[in-house]
Amino acid sequence: MPNLSTNYLGLELKNPIIVASSGLTDSVEKIKELEANGAAAVVLKSIFEEEIIMEMDEQMLNMTSRPYIYPETFDYMSDEPEEDLVRKYLRLIKEAKAAVSIPIIASINCVSSQKWTYLATEIEKAGADALEINFFVLPTDLNRSVDENENIYYEVLKEVKKKVALPVSLKISPYHSNLAHMVKKLDDSGADGVVMFNRFYSPDIDINNLTLNTGQVLSGAYDFKNTLRWVGILRDRVKCSIAATTGIHSSESIIKQLLAGADAVQLASIIYKEGPGYIDTLTKEIYSWMEKQGFENISDFQGKLSQDKSNDPAAFERVQFMKHFRNFVM
Ligand SMILES: Cc1cc2nc3c(=O)[nH]c(=O)nc-3n(C[C@H](O)[C@H](O)[C@H](O)COP(=O)(O)O)c2cc1C
Questions:
Q1: Rounded distance from Cα 298 to ligand 1 centre (Å)
Q2: Which atom of ligand 1 sits closest to the CA of residue 267?
Q3: Does any ligand 1 atom lie closer than 6 A to the CB of residue 169?
Q4: Most exposed residue of 13, 15, 97, 264, measured as fewest CB within 10 angstroms of its CB?
Q5: Is 54 exposed, middle or buried (0-12, 13-18, 19+ CB in 10 A)?
Q6: What does the pLDDT average to over 55-74?
Q7: At what angle do helices 118-126 and 146-163 cross, to 10 degrees?
Q8: For position 50, what pLDDT does the model report?
């Protein structure tokens, strides 16, 4: 019988399927259902830096409206809000940990390394198995350099790693001027894992009403290719774990990511579309494929087709159609 277990962030997972941070993982009931259907771990819906800071600011405001508060009182607040959202988030971690046996990965969505980092310690105390940091600022500021934009990633990682012993992963976007260098630097700076790549909400235009509207919320089944490329390129160049995400909708695309070198995959859109029961279908299909191929363990084939190990390393870096597809016809 093939064994689907894999190691991600130092956590032993029973199979490579993690349910990605989303509304699918925002309650204990949903997490229990995901576990019952075979999910190997879940990443909780992110708590957002803006939410944390907003609650801290509200408290400040409440305090300043009280005339008997001395200015020094603020020094004792140590930036820690007595908030609802934060408390709710920590309660979700504790209750989820008590209710299921799969790893619970907390998630913080942030845009700076400022006041929020105390929360990493609270998340660790609440019992989370790991922390995923979803960091992204769209680089639209014409006056900011690449270094200024990218240094924040290392600062955030450094701040958080100083505070916790938990495994910490960075969920990153593909939009970097030197992605390979950046991931290597995150790896060297102590990241336990990278999650490639976050998928962002993008605006769309309604040409009939001449308005902006909501773009596609869920990914499509062909969206996994860019992730596949970078998992393959980076697998043998970094030591940290790699989770592949975006557009992974089938057992076939999961197997491809594993062959390229991912340690695990994170799924959201397809679970929204098909429901949690689909996880069981996916694991069964991976099982049958492994049996057919004669693989007993995930490690028997994981990374077998990374850039360094594949029969055609150049394919990972091939981006122009001109030379290779000159005679392409439909
Ligand atoms: C409705 C929805 C909500 C999401 N919320 C979050 C979130 O709070 N934090 C986060 O890091 N990613 C979030 N994501 C991104 C997913 O975790 C995932 O990385 C992305 O959707 C790509 O995977 P997919 O193609 O399987 O959907 C969300 C995605 C969807 C569709």
A1: 25
A2: 26
A3: no
A4: 97
A5: middle
A6: 49
A7: 40
A8: 72
Give the distance from CA 49 to its chain's centroid: 16
Mean per-residue pLDDT, 206-229: 92
What pTM was estimated for this model as a whole?
0.90
Shortest-distance atom of ligand 1 to CA 219: 25
Is pLDDT at 101 greater than 90 in this prediction? Answer: yes
Q: Which residue has tokens 């957002």?
A: 48
For residue 247, the ligand 1 atom closest to its alpha carbon is 25
Instruction: Report the distance separating Cα 150 and Cα 148, nearest Å.
Output: 6
Helix, strand, coil % in the chain, rounded to nearest 5 = 40, 15, 40
Mean pLDDT of the 173-200 span: 94
Mind listing the domains of the chain with CATH numbers?
6-317 (3.20.20.70)
**Residue 79 pLDDT > 70:** no
Q: Report the distance separating Cα 200 and Cα 256, nearest Å.
A: 23
Residue nearest to atom 5 of ligand 1 (CA): 22
Backbone φ and ψ of 266, nearest 5°:
-120, 125
Taking residue 88's Cβ as centre, other Cβ atoms within 10 Å add up to 10
What DSSP letter does each residue of 71-104 carry, written as one string? TTHHHHTTT----SHHHHHHHHHHHHHHH-SS-E
Give yes or no for residue 96 CB within 6 A of ligand 1. no
| Per-residue pLDDT tens over the stretch 132-152 | 999 887 888 899 888 888 899
